[in-house]
Design the sequence.
């Protein structure tokens, strides 16, 4: 079975405008997108809803077991880790609490490592703005 393509994006708090510009340019036929945006819990839901209103693709704050599908971007909720696995022919996300990784929750490294593990060369990883060292290993 050939796994579908997937795009993983990691960015720090300063990357909100860059995420907006990228997602506004995405066609409905784009691969599924998973995003870790370092953003406070109090802001992540409103940020995601705003992006969903501005973009052609669906933009959703990820919930545990959400399927990663074309034409949709899942953003990790503030204060929660997000990872990706592959089951029954599709990618899905796991959203959970956990310790800080590289001083962050959500962690870009955690997301990128799980995307690499399950998607391999079918994945594209993108780092935007300075995320310190979070994302460098992933």
Sequence:
């Amino acid at each position: 079975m050939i796994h579908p393509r997937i795009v993983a994006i990691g960015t720090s708090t300063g990357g909100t405008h860059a995420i907006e510009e990228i997602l506004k340019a995405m066609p409905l036929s784009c691969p599924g997108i998973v995003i870790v945006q370092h953003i406070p819990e109090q802001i992540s839901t409103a940020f995601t809803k705003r992006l969903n209103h501005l973009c052609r693709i669906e933009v959703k704050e990820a919930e545990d077991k959400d399927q990663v599908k074309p034409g949709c971007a899942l953003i990790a909720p503030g204060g929660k880790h997000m990872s990706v696995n592959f089951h029954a022919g599709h990618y899905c996300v796991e959203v959970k609490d956990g310790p800080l990784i590289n001083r962050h929750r959500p962690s870009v490294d955690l997301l990128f490592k799980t995307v690499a593990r399950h998607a391999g060369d079918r994945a594209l990883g993108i780092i935007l703005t300075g995320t310190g060292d979070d994302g460098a290993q992933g």
Q: What stands out?
A: The longest strand covers residues 81-87. The helical segments are 16-25, 41-54, 108-119. The radius of gyration is 13 Å.
